[in-house]
Design goal:
- The chain has one domain (3-180): 2-enoyl-CoA Hydratase, Chain A, domain 1 (Alpha-Beta Complex).
- The longest helix has 21 residues, at 70-90.
- By secondary structure, it is α/β, with parallel strands linked by helices.
- It is built from ten helices and nine strands.
- Strands 1-2-3-4-6-9 form a six-stranded mixed beta sheet, with helices on both faces. It has a three-stranded mixed beta sheet with strand order 5-7-8.
Length: 246
């Protein structure tokens, strides 16, 4: 199974489970994750923890998956990538990301779409979109500027540099940095604390903070990604990145 589900009382733990591929997001994993968000909508789930198996949180989109046409990418963006963020923000239960190792591209965006982010000292965050001729997706054009500011987001997204956990904390991208090996325990503690709060206050607060511009941002990402990947330089950049990560 590419996504594991485990109940811990009122908390549901979702674990990306492609450790040999650094939990890269292929179609099977994205579909399983969408199913997992549906499971998380159960009324007795009061909080969710999202983690990754092995030595990474998530290496982003699986670049070794078969190439798609720009038209196919636009559909995939809407049905698999944007759909994750819509499901996550529409979920009543708060989501806490437990990030260790690399969080790259869509993996970074997945963490940014959570409500709280806990990272280990060795966690790293890389946008990576521009260096393969792509644009931010999975809601990153909406969520990341709200966390770290628009100017800083543009510089980071286009520079391709990797942030350490300490940098991410200083910027506001993550909420806590803990020793290596402690991210899941810390995320679970936060999840149980949120789950124990009375009534619907947490769920309603999450809904209020979601804002009204997310759907517009996701639709703009879908259009821009289709245009970006149609550029002739895109294929060469994608192949170079595959060789770098091989």
């Amino acid at each position: 199974m590419t996504v594991l589900l485990e109940r811990d009382g009122a908390v549901l733990v979702l674990t990306l489970n492609r450790p040999d591929a650094l939990n890269a997001l292929d179609d099977e994993t994205l579909d399983a994750l969408l199913d997992a968000w549906c499971a998380a909508a159960a009324p007795d789930v009061r909080a969710v923890v999202l983690a990754g198996a092995g030595r990474a949180f998530c290496a982003g989109a699986d670049l070794k998956a078969p190439a798609r046409t720009p038209e196919e990418i636009a559909v995939n963006q809407k049905e698999r990538y944007s759909a994750q963020v819509r499901a996550m923000t529409g979920l009543a239960a708060p989501i806490i990301a437990a990030v260790h190792g690399p969080a790259v591209g869509a993996g970074m965006a997945l963490a940014a779409a959570c409500d709280v982010r806990v990272a280990t000292h060795s966690a790293t965050f890389t946008a990576g979109f521009a260096r393969i001729g792509a644009v931010p997706d999975m809601g990153a054009s909406y969520t990341v500027p709200r966390l770290i500011g628009a100017g800083r987001t543009f510089e980071w997204f286009t520079s391709g540099r990797t942030l350490s956990a300490a940098d991410a904390l200083a910027w506001g991208l993550v909420d806590e940095v803990v020793p290596d090996g402690a991210a899941l325990a810390s995320a679970l503690a936060r999840a149980h604390a949120l789950a124990a709060l009375p009534g619907d206050g947490v769920a309603l607060t999450k809904a209020l903070l979601a804002g009204t511009g997310l759907d517009d941002a996701l639709a703009a990402e879908e259009r821009a990604q289709a245009q970006a990947v149609a550029h002739p330089d895109r294929l060469a950049a994608r192949q170079r990145r595959i060789k770098e990560t091989a």
